[in-house]
Write a structure and sequence with these properties.
Layout lengths: L1 E6 L20 H21 L4 E6 L16 E4 L19 E7 L18 E6 L2 E2 L2 H10 L5 E7 H10 L4 E9 L2 E4 L2 H17 L13 E7 L2 H7 L6 E4 L2 E6 L2 H11 L1
Parallel strand pairs: 1-2, 1-4, 2-3, 4-7, 7-8
Antiparallel strand pairs: 5-6, 5-10, 8-9, 10-12, 11-12
Helix pairs in contact: 1-4
């Protein structure tokens, strides 16, 4: 079995403040460890289910967070950012049997994670077909381009509920819950145990139940925190400046949505 893992940091157990996610801050090393260990737990769960090849995308900030020395021998790690439209699922293709999202977080415009955002803090709200879109939705639909089912997600309680909304068959593990700028989190050891067991069960279960059918057309709307960015982004081919700090792009090709996001966010 060939498994893809996309890993972020803002949804790992205990993370509460941006200082803990920023590479140059003294608080960061602890949460780099948490991110790494949750990815290792997902790898262990995948191997227990029969995975013989695992590709991991380090998908937080610089793309250089996961401690590679901790990974199992059957894993490969994608570090940094190539600029490819697949972004947080770079190098994913139809050869993979399943994908897993680890350490994912709530979307911009919601309050279920103090670090909630979508792709960048420059974005106040990102909508696809009239619905607030998370990084989990954006990249689950990217996986759907290749008919790869996203069978598991771990992160905050909000993103777990969100994922169930667009992928009812997905297995989730909520490691934390937000109360304003605070969080209530599982102990990291408990989070890792649940991730490990959840991944195994998801990969051994009905993966076809997690295959998503893409809509026939797409309307991307990005609302920026700074209105200047909306004007600049409106020059992307096919984009329209809608006012109120928003640009809109309509297309029948989801890959075009992914390509646009590389330039307008």
């Amino acid at each position: 079995m060939k498994v893809y893992i996309s890993a972020d940091i803002e949804g790992v157990a205990g993370i509460t403040n941006w200082n803990e996610a920023e590479k140059n801050h003294p608080d960061y090393p602890e949460f780099r460890e948490r991110m790494t260990e949750e990815v290792v737990a997902a790898c262990d769960g995948a191997i227990a289910a029969g995975a013989t090849e695992i590709l991991i995308k380090d998908a937080h900030d610089s793309g250089r967070n996961i401690l590679a020395e901790r990974l199992p021998d059957c894993a490969r790690l994608v570090r940094g950012w190539s600029g490819h439209p697949l972004a947080m699922v770079q190098e994913l293709d139809a050869s993979f049997d399943a994908a897993l999202l680890v350490g994912y977080h709530s979307k911009a415009g919601t309050e279920s994670n103090p670090l909630a955002h979508t792709l960048t803090l420059r974005v106040a709200r990102l909508m696809i077909n009239g619905t607030l879109a998370s990084e989990a939705l954006i990249h689950s639909w990217a996986a759907a381009l290749y008919r790869v089912p996203v069978v598991f997600l771990s992160g905050d309680q909000g993103i777990c509920a969100d994922a169930k909304g667009f992928n009812p068959g997905i297995a989730t593990v909520a490691v934390s819950e937000a109360f304003g700028p605070s969080t209530v989190s599982l102990a990291p050891s408990r989070a890792r145990a649940l991730i490990r067991a959840g991944v195994t069960a998801a990969l051994e279960g009905d993966r076809d139940a997690c295959r998503i059918k893409l809509p026939e057309s797409f309307m991307l709307e990005v609302t920026y925190s700074n209105p200047v960015q909306a004007y600049k982004s409106s020059w992307y081919p096919g984009a329209r400046h809608m006012g109120n700090q928003t640009v809109r792009l309509e297309t029948k090709d989801y890959f075009e949505v992914l390509r646009a996001l590389r330039f307008v966010v």
